[in-house]
Amino acid sequence: xxxxxxEKKWMxxxxxxxxxxxxxxxxxxxxxxxxxxxxxxTIDPKTLHLSGEFTEDNLGVSxxxxxxxxxRMIAAxxxxxPQMIEVPADxxxxxxxxxxxxxxxxxxxxxxxxxxxxxxxVSEVTTRFSREGEAQFLCNEYCGxxxxxxxxxxxxxxxx
Length: 160
Ligand SMILES: [Cu+2]
Hints:
- The chain is α+β, with helices and mostly antiparallel strands.
- The chain has two domains: 1-34; 56-157, Immunoglobulin-like, CATH 2.60.40.
- 16% of the residues lie in helices and 32% in strands.
- The chain contains one helix and ten strands.
- The protein has one helix spanning 5-30, and strands spanning 60-63, 69-76, 79-81, 84-88, 93-98, 104-107, 114-117, 123-127, 133-138, 151-157.
- The strands form three sheets. Strands 1, 2, 3, 5 and 8 form a five-stranded mixed β-sheet that branches. A three-stranded mixed β-sheet has the order 4-10-9, with no helix packed on it. The chain has a two-stranded antiparallel ribbon with strand order 6-7.
- A hairpin with a 5-residue loop joins strand 1 and strand 2 (69-76).
- It starts with a helix and ends with a strand.
- It binds copper (II) ion.
- Copper (II) ion binds next to loops.
């Protein structure tokens, strides 16, 4: 079979690009520990506020017996509840987030904390923050006219 030399050259270019893309995805997954959220846990978005772990009193930071933290949050048009979360640096933090209305996203810039929040599901992300200071939770899924104003504060304080 005859293949034009120019076409052959472009086949190599595409081959190299494919190897680079698969290589960078493998590197991100294995070395940088970045994985898509895989927590498939369902919840009824209509009764979130009535009982269970996402009632108003249960939202926010709670400490586990092993010293790690669990943060429960609600992402709803157009804010995150609670509006301020304070966690110590270098401590494992598990975020459990759900939505009562539509799809939102939670993203903390310059960290690996980023997930989609889908009504009917509990999104779970475990991470730790090494840099002290203030950051923001931002919504990164367009959710309506107030999307630009959908953010809340994250405060990372010194450990101990
Ligand atoms: Cu949004």
